[in-house]
Amino acid sequence: MKARTKPVLTISELLVERGGNVILDVPELILSAGEVLAVIGPNGAGKTTLLTAVLGLQKSISKGSVARGGLSFPGTPPHLYRRGFAMVFQDSLLFNGTVSENVASGLKIRGFGRSAIKKTVSEQLERFGIAALRDRRAHSLSGGEAQRVSLARALATSPEILLLDEPFASLASPTRESILDDLAMALSGSDTAVMLVTHDR
After folding, report:
1. The pTM is what?
2. Which residue, among 153, 53, 162, 58, has the nearest Cα to 110 in the 3D structure?
3. How many CA atoms lie within 13 A of 141 on its CB side?
4. How many other CB atoms sit within 10 Å of the CB of residue 74?
5. Helix 173-187 to helix 143-156 angle, to the nearest 10 degrees?
6. What is the pLDDT of residue 180?
7. pLDDT tens, 92-118?
């Protein structure tokens, strides 16, 4: 298998402080294409703060920077810097449309054509085992189904970097393991880099 060594994310001397307290201190972190990095720690350890800093949402950066390719934050306009990211949260955050509409939403925002959207949505629904749910409304889904839709929506845009903020924490063990297997298959052979924060070893 071809080695994947291209850095897609570089953190340098990142310091986040609030009220004089150090919340996050990361001297250096490099994430390469196709790499999966798990950040494990208890609640309150700064895991979500790390993700918000990586995504350019953190307003309390005291020093340092995060770079995606040749774009850095702070520095680059946020809408340009964030273009290569997708994120999935513990809560699925689906809007109350159909499953297909949710998965298609990022593609529509990026201006994909109708046929490309239809093809990509069908591929993602199959990949995560939710093709039979394509016309279901989001509010009618179980927790596991909703997270499958969230992952399908995130990967539909072929992100450079996928950020996962404890997306499986509220799911029962068999559901969690099944979704993780499907996610691993979806990422197999992909250059998408993944950063997963979790408290569950």
Report:
1. 0.89
2. 153
3. 27
4. 13
5. 10
6. 92
7. 889 999 999 999 999 999 889 999 999
- Tokens representing 116 are 């490309």
DSSP, collapsed to helix, strand or coil, labels residue 23 as strand
Residue 129 and residue 148 in contact, taking contact as beta carbons nearer than 8 Å: yes
The one-letter amino acid code at 138 reads A
Percent of the chain with pLDDT over 70: 98
Which burial class, exposed, middle or buried, applies to 12 when counting CB atoms under 10 A from its CB (0-12, 13-18, 19+)?
A: middle
pLDDT of residue 41: 86
Long-range contact set of residues 115-124: C-beta below 8 Å, sequence gap at least 24? 120/156, 121/156, 124/152, 124/153, 124/155, 124/156, 124/186
Extract the tokens encoding 29: 């972190």
| CA–CA distances in Å: residue 64 to residues 13, 30, 173 | 5, 14, 38
In the prediction, which pLDDT does 185 show?
93
Q: What is the pLDDT of residue 143?
A: 93
**What integer is the mean pLDDT of 55-69?**
87
Tokens encoding 30: 């490099």
Average pLDDT, the chain: 90
Distance, in Å, from the CA atom of 148 to the CA atom of 10, rounded to the nearest integer, reads 29
Instruction: Give residue 127's Cα distance to chain centre.
Output: 17
CA distance 122 to 44: 39
